[in-house]
Amino acid sequence: MTQTNINTRHIPDRLHSRSYRALRSWETLLLTVAIVVFVINSFASPYFLNAWSLSDATFNFTEKAMIAFAMALLIIAGEIDLSVASIIALASTAMGFAVQHGAGTPELIMIGLTVGLLCGAFNAVFVTILGLPSIVVTIGSMSLFRGISFIILGDGAFRGYPADFAWFGQGYIYWVFTVEIAIFALIAVIYFVLLHKTNFGRAVYAIGNNPTGALFSGIRVQRVKFILFLLTGLMSGVAAICLTSRLGSTRPSIALGMELEVVTMVVLGGVNILGGSGSIHGVVIAAFVMGLVTFGLGLLNVPGIVMSIFIGLLLIGVIALPRVWAMFVAKRNTP
Amino acid sequence: MSTLKKIMTSTAIASAMLASPALAADETRIALVVKALGIGFFEAAAKGAEEAAAELGDVELIYTGPTDTTAEGQIEVINALIAQNVDAIAISANDTDALVPVLKKAMSRGITVVSWDSGVAPEGRQLHLNPSSNPLIGNMIIKLAADHLPDGGDVAILSATTTSTNQNTWIEEMNKVKDNYAGINVVGTVYGDDLADKSYREATGLMQTYPELDAIIAPTSVGIVAAAQAVVDAGKVGQVNVTGLGLPSEMAGAIESGASKSFAIWNPIDLGYSATMLAYEIAKNGAKPEPGATISMGRMGTLELDEKSEGAMADPFVYDATNIDEFKSIF
Q1: Transmembrane stretches, by residue range (chain A) (predicted)?
Q2: Residue B67: its chain A contacts at CB < 8 A?
Q3: Rounded Cα–Cα distance for residues A218 and A228 (Å)
């Protein structure tokens, strides 16, 4: 082997056009998946293309997605909050407790949001002020928050929520459009603007890519992270209000295991689990994909365990596909 | 993009295959919704429901449930059933209250809703079928332990989760009658969350905490098997008797090894059968599920409803070395 191997490297003299990049983006791939799933479902079940069915289907993802938006920002900034489902449990328990003492709907909303914020602040203090890793802190608070609910409720349940409180989880804004989907849409817009159109959003990306660099660029890294934990707590509070309203009761096992579904949604939405990249519209599409897949399979009476397999395959498939494609392209370009 | 297309095509084919059971127009479609799939008890109930469907002839049975025992999971399943416009839903509920709003919605769209095994609050269903009566079960589980402890002794309880409606009711009923069994001390209650590994650890913990323990009562089919295994592994067969509620197929080994002398269960096959029959009677034959009503359950006789529209199917049945071989292959 005397032949010298010369590595040729392709250096582009210009970037691809904006539209070409949009076409090749993660979001486009995900949107294609969503459309394909929608079409398959329409053919597979005669009940799928029905406004009321689809309206019911949105409940499969709305509450999770509300948290997923805040979680997306947190993960982009290189942190994570695994205590979100437990925050729901604690906020819901607090609301149930208040109901037993005669609280009305406005007070319940205040309590739900406040407990969410406080739990977020609790995580934030440990992560940003004491400098502990967020995954450790929030695994701890995951047990802590739900533990408090279990101590308060034991095997009991809080019932008797006021009738007008049911509006959030069971009400309709107009025709088949639920209150939850409206809240979901509103939050999506707010987070889209926050992440993609503000300095705060740029700071979140900067922190995720290089926290030290961000700090030396004058970004108050810890303060931004503190706010992100507060937002995640607040969104868990909003989700707690919706879920409690939908169930009409509180048990300490409420929303058990939801944190993993939220993280799945975020990752499926194209957010880099290691931080630094991702988009809100990706998460929106991911929410619809997960909702459509679970509902579509539900209509076919596919057992839940098979459904989990599908979601797992979808996640791995969608994540692996661009990588496989890149390898394929690289191989083809090598002489 | 061709890889993606291939994946999607295979998914489409897979979905189409799953959808293949054709929809017959005149059939009464009854959905048997269980707490979670993959639990022996509910698989047996489904077998009974199939038997009822075959007997009735014009019934399409849908056996479904979530992956884990959560109310949220069951709500998703019920929403899918409402969308399919099934005729009846017969459900064993993960949560008494949380399912009420969605089941109310089902009823408002003309779907018959009955609960069985683990009930739903009265406003969320038309009737509830209890496999047996709670006082009888509560009495049975402590009687099973006491029968093998003529001189009295210490017993502990290994339950499912702290929020399990069934287990809590039975333990409550058991506590009401435990004074009838002289010398029997209930020393503690632990929760294995209906997970095999956690139940095993909790049972091992019980034997360490109470070295004089004579019996473990596990009123859950997951817990009793785990507890029996824990007793065998701790070398305490003969000292600690595991009893409670379990499935013959899963308990055959424990009866053989002597870790369990006897246990009880109603017949889940009969339960699924009866629930399906009741759903059919209401949805198709117009039976009125009101307090005081009597509704036919096919070969299981009739169900009498009390003031809360609940009824009990039958007494729990005791399994021991004499009859385990006969039943272990059934469920």
Answers
A1: 28-49, 61-77, 109-132, 173-194, 226-248, 254-275, 282-300, 306-330
A2: 303-305, 307-308
A3: 18
For residue B164, give its domain range: 134-265
In chain A, how many domains are there?
A: 1
Measured between alpha carbons, how far is B75 from A295 in angstroms, rounded to an integer?
11
Looking at the domain assignment, is residue A108 inside a domain?
yes
- Cβ contacts of B34 on chain A, cutoff 8 Å: none
pLDDT value at B101 more than 80: yes
The interface pTM score, or ipTM, of the predicted complex is: 0.79
Q: How far apart, in whole angstroms, are the C-alpha atoms of residue A114 and residue A117?
A: 5
Round to whole Å and give the CA distance between A170 and A166: 6
Q: Is residue A34 part of a domain?
A: no
Residue A222 within any structural domain of the chain = yes
A287 has a pLDDT exceeding 90 = yes
* A79: closest CA of chain B, how far (Å): 27
- Listed by number, the residues of chain B in 16-45 with a beta carbon closer than 8 Å to a beta carbon of chain A are 16, 18-19, 23, 31, 36-38
Q: How far is CA A195 from CA A72, A160, A209, A274, B137, in A?
A: 10, 39, 15, 17, 58
Range of A72's domain? 48-321
CA distance linking residue A251 with residue A244, whole number of Å: 9
Closest CA to B162 of B136, B142, B189: B189
Kind and range of the H or E run holding A200? helix A199-209
B168 contacts chain A (CB < 8 A) = yes
* Residues of chain B contacting A295 with CB distance shorter than 8 Å: 76, 79-80, 83
A43 touches chain B (CB under 8 A): yes
Is residue B25's pLDDT more than 60? no
The CB density around residue B94, as the number of other CB atoms within 10 Å, is 29
Question: Do B101 and A170 make contact, defined as CB atoms within 8 angstroms?
Answer: yes
CB proximity B68 to A under 8 Å: yes
Q: Is the domain of B157 the same as that of B242?
A: yes
* pLDDT digit string, tens, across residues B162-206: 888 889 999 999 999 999 998 899 999 999 998 999 999 999 999
| B65 contacts in chain A (CB < 8 Å) | 303-304
